[in-house]
Amino acid sequence: MSQSYEKLKAQVQELQAQGKLDIWPSQEQRIDWAYGNTKIENDAITREMAEKAVAGKPSPLK
Protein backbone atom coordinates (compact mmCIF):
# COMPACT_ATOMS: atom_id res chain seq x y z
CA MET A 1 0.00 0.00 0.00
CA SER A 2 1.09 3.53 -0.53
CA GLN A 3 2.76 5.42 2.25
CA SER A 4 0.14 8.17 2.08
CA TYR A 5 -2.64 5.64 2.71
CA GLU A 6 -0.84 4.23 5.74
CA LYS A 7 -0.26 7.74 7.08
CA LEU A 8 -3.93 8.66 6.62
CA LYS A 9 -5.04 5.40 8.24
CA ALA A 10 -2.81 6.08 11.25
CA GLN A 11 -4.25 9.60 11.59
CA VAL A 12 -7.82 8.27 11.50
CA GLN A 13 -7.03 5.63 14.12
CA GLU A 14 -5.42 8.27 16.35
CA LEU A 15 -8.49 10.51 16.10
CA GLN A 16 -10.74 7.55 16.94
CA ALA A 17 -8.58 6.68 19.96
CA GLN A 18 -8.84 10.29 21.17
CA GLY A 19 -12.63 10.19 20.82
CA LYS A 20 -12.61 12.93 18.18
CA LEU A 21 -13.92 10.68 15.41
CA ASP A 22 -16.70 8.13 15.79
CA ILE A 23 -15.87 4.55 14.90
CA TRP A 24 -19.44 3.91 13.71
CA PRO A 25 -21.58 6.32 11.70
CA SER A 26 -24.42 8.07 13.53
CA GLN A 27 -28.06 7.43 12.68
CA GLU A 28 -28.13 10.74 10.79
CA GLN A 29 -25.03 9.80 8.77
CA ARG A 30 -26.58 6.44 7.90
CA ILE A 31 -29.77 8.17 6.70
CA ASP A 32 -27.77 10.67 4.63
CA TRP A 33 -25.74 7.87 3.06
CA ALA A 34 -28.82 5.77 2.26
CA TYR A 35 -30.72 8.73 0.81
CA GLY A 36 -27.81 10.06 -1.23
CA ASN A 37 -26.90 6.73 -2.76
CA THR A 38 -30.43 5.64 -3.61
CA LYS A 39 -31.47 9.06 -4.92
CA ILE A 40 -28.71 8.82 -7.53
CA GLU A 41 -30.35 5.70 -8.95
CA ASN A 42 -34.01 6.59 -8.44
CA ASP A 43 -35.45 10.12 -8.38
CA ALA A 44 -38.62 8.83 -6.73
CA ILE A 45 -36.76 8.13 -3.48
CA THR A 46 -37.55 10.56 -0.66
CA ARG A 47 -35.64 11.30 2.51
CA GLU A 48 -38.59 9.92 4.47
CA MET A 49 -38.18 6.57 2.67
CA ALA A 50 -34.50 6.51 3.62
CA GLU A 51 -35.35 7.36 7.25
CA LYS A 52 -37.84 4.48 7.40
CA ALA A 53 -35.37 2.07 5.80
CA VAL A 54 -32.59 2.98 8.21
CA ALA A 55 -34.95 2.90 11.20
CA GLY A 56 -35.79 -0.71 10.36
CA LYS A 57 -32.14 -1.79 10.43
CA PRO A 58 -30.14 -2.44 13.59
CA SER A 59 -27.25 -0.14 14.42
CA PRO A 60 -23.82 -1.68 13.79
CA LEU A 61 -23.16 -1.18 17.52
CA LYS A 62 -25.85 -3.68 18.53
Walkthrough of the structure:
- The radius of gyration is 16 Å and the shape is elongated.
- Helix 2 (27-41) packs across helix 3 (47-55).
- With 62 residues, the chain is an all-alpha fold.
- 63% of the residues lie in helices and 0% in strands.
- The chain contains 3 helices and no strands.
- The protein has a domain at 22-62.
Defining key terms:
62 residues, mainly alpha, 3 helices, 0% strand
Structural class estimated from helices and strands:
mainly alpha
- Indicate the mean pLDDT: 88
Q: Termini separation (Å)?
A: 32 Å
The rough form would be described as elongated
Low-confidence stretches: none
Strand content: under 5%
Per DSSP E runs of 2 or more residues, the count of β-strands stands at 0
What count of helical segments does DSSP give? 3
H and E string: HHH
Rg calc: 16 Å
Q: What percentage of residues falls in helices of 4 or more residues?
A: 55-70%
For the biggest sheet, the summary is:
none
Topology of this structure?
Blueprint: H1 3-17, H2 27-41, H3 47-55
Helix pairs in contact: 2-3
